Amino acid sequence: MSVAERAAGATPVATVEPADADAAPVIALRGVRREYVMGGQTVQALRGIDLDIRRNDYVAIIGASGSGKSTLMNIIGCLDKPSHGHYLLNGQAVADMGDNALAGVRNTEIGFIFQSFNLLPRVDALHNVMQPLVYRRMPYAERRERASDALRKVGLTQRMGHLPNELSGGQRQRVAVARALVGNPSILLADEPTGNLDSTTTEEIMTLFDQLQADGQTVVVVTHEPDIAQRCHRVITLHDGLVKLDQQQRPLAC
Ligand code: ADP
Ligand code: MG
Q1: Residue with CA nearest ligand 1 atom 17
Q2: Ligand 2 centre from 80 Cα, in Å?
Q3: What distance in angstroms lies between residue 242's CA and the mean position of ligand 1's atoms?
Q4: pLDDT tens-place string over residues 50-81
Q5: CA atoms within 13 A on the CB side of 193
Q6: Which ligand 1 atom is at minimum distance from the Cα of 68?
Q7: The model scores a pTM over 0.85
Q8: Domain coordinates of the chain in residue numbers?
Q9: Separation of 65 CA from ligand 2 center, angstroms?
């Protein structure tokens, strides 16, 4: 509609929204800030982040230590909430959710992988991977089957009965990836997942992420290693709590 038509009071034509729900971003952040108050001083960890992450994106988040990468990941993963601004996860406003709803969303929508694996030391790989499904009131046999499937995806079928301390660092991180995947989350978030691994094992874990993304998973990886960032399709650089660069290195598949 032209300015003249609008001024003349012509009936506005409804904008056509894409009917395909997959076209909507999985993650939408608008004006997100996070402040920490410590000993009377305020630290501005995030100073206004606008960011969309779409289904099947393969994103690296890089930036100097203290630039806000973990703070951003914790907000995206619903482990923390913004001090200001809006966060929509699959179109739902996270700020409006109570603790129970948030715990549910974390369990069903988010797969989080940490640098330090965070496995339960006293139970085997299979039971570590089954653990997130406990909260879903799923029968034991089904939990077991899903966990074995997830361990098969990460190439650990032969190690299901091993305790974490009977596994190598790379195998432990693969158990953690299987645990993150078992609930079929909308998004896989990994905060420096290879920070404790040597270069061969790093390559193993990154090849696994490449495969998961090629199979349709949405993946976001925090890293300070340029090689790792380069293999992702999009690289977001944080500086002092702001997005300094957002580079799409390869076109989206769809
Ligand atoms: P990165 O992961 O990029 O190293 P962080 O997100 O951990 O950065 O930290 C960003 C800024 O916020 C830093 O200045 C850090 O000291 C501060 N910060 C992070 N977590 C806390 C916290 N729990 N309390 C106070 N300050 C924090
Ligand atoms: Mg960090």
Answers
A1: 45
A2: 14
A3: 13
A4: 999 999 999 999 999 999 999 999 999 999 99
A5: 33
A6: 6
A7: yes
A8: 56-78+110-248
A9: 7
